[in-house]
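User: Can you recover a sequence for this backbone? Please restate the input before giving your answer.

Assistant: Of course. Working from this structure:
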């Protein structure tokens, strides 16, 4: 067994009596530490004395950069521990926002980070919602780094970016026709119509499988569904029903009847296809891309969420009670249908004006 002998120390076996002796340098002189036949005892005594003379080893604290601290904060403070309620969606959103920060910010040392620099970078972000998300992540992360930034959080001097969520609206028939005609191919037209006739959220379409469409005359059971990595009850698909697999709330996994205009489209899409295939082989970034192209081509100011508002308004105009179709949208109660998603149509405005005019003349 090889023994480590620190500099300034000696450890040897004496020839005169075969004892093991250890010495250590102190004030320029060799001092005997121990001398015995037990080799291990003498070595342990030497190392103990050496450590006592040298003093406790000061652990050098790691100097973090902004990016390294964000990763450290996410792994140590943000990842869900056993028994906590932090959702998978929140973790994914955190990571996405951290990646955005790494694209927009410089990787500075924490001690050199200034609130004025953070404010300048946040103000340069064109999209208010993105800037607001970055602000939230930086505030949470740098709050935990106060002992490394002079005892106060840098974010206390940073103003929260102003952002007002854009309210949705229902598209009129002319706008819908323009949007559909601006699609580059048949599959993009099918996607737009699917949004308009189902009112699904724009990311839910990527999770719609062929087996979630029941155009047969018999009921079908869909199993192996999960919400936040926990299994949920099996869903029964009645004839001419489809399943929307949402993950925003537990009620987002829901069924709804297939609207007559959508039926021929679905018949064509699911023909000779396996049940485990995606109905549309589109990723969410591809859908966002063709939405931007259509918006630029038509010059219509609309968002993907407006398809959902349009569907809700069309269901209302068709005479479907809100206490029926609110479940098709995955809402917890029908107040969302009445207060947020349904809008007054041009026909209703015309009837209102005619009624008002009649009221004032009689």
């Amino acid at each position: 067994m090889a023994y480590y002998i620190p500099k300034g120390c000696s450890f040897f076996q004496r020839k005169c009596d075969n004892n093991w002796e250890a010495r250590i340098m102190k004030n320029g002189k060799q001092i005997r530490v121990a001398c015995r036949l037990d080799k291990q005892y003498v070595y342990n005594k030497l190392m103990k004395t050496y450590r006592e003379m040298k003093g406790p080893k000061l652990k050098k604290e790691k100097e973090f950069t902004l990016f390294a601290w964000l990763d450290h904060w996410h792994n140590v403070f943000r990842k869900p521990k056993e028994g906590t309620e932090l959702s998978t969606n929140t973790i994914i959103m955190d990571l996405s926002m951290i990646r955005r920060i790494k694209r927009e910010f410089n990787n500075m040392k924490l001690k050199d980070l200034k609130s004025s620099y953070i404010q300048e970078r946040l103000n340069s972000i064109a999209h208010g919602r993105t800037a607001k998300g970055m602000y939230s992540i930086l505030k949470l992360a740098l709050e935990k780094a106060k002992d490394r930034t002079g005892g106060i959080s840098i974010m206390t001097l940073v103003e929260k970016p102003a952002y007002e969520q854009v309210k949705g609206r229902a598209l009129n028939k002319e706008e819908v026709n323009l949007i559909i005609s601006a699609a580059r191919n048949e599959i993009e037209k099918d996607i737009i119509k699917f949004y308009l006739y189902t009112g699904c959220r724009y990311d839910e379409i990527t999770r719609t499988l062929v087996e979630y469409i029941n155009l047969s005359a018999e009921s079908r059971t869909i199993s192996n569904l999960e919400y936040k990595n926990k299994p949920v009850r099996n869903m029964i698909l009645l004839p001419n029903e489809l399943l929307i697999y949402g993950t925003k709330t537990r009620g987002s996994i829901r069924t709804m009847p297939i609207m007559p205009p959508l039926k021929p489209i679905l018949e064509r899409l699911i023909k000779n296809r396996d049940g485990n295939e995606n109905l549309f082989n589109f990723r969410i970034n591809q859908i966002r891309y063709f939405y931007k192209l259509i918006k630029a081509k038509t010059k219509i100011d609309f968002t993907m969420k407006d398809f959902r508002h349009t569907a809700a308004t069309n269901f209302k105009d068709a005479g479907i009670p809100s206490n029926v179709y609110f479940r098709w949208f995955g809402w917890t109660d029908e107040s969302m249908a009445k207060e947020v998603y349904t809008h007054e149509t041009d026909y209703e405005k015309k009837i209102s004006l005619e009624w008002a005019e009649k009221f004032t003349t009689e």
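That completes the design. Strands lie at 9-13, 20-26, 29-36, 213-214, 220-222, 226-227, 230-231, 235-237, 241-245, 253-257.
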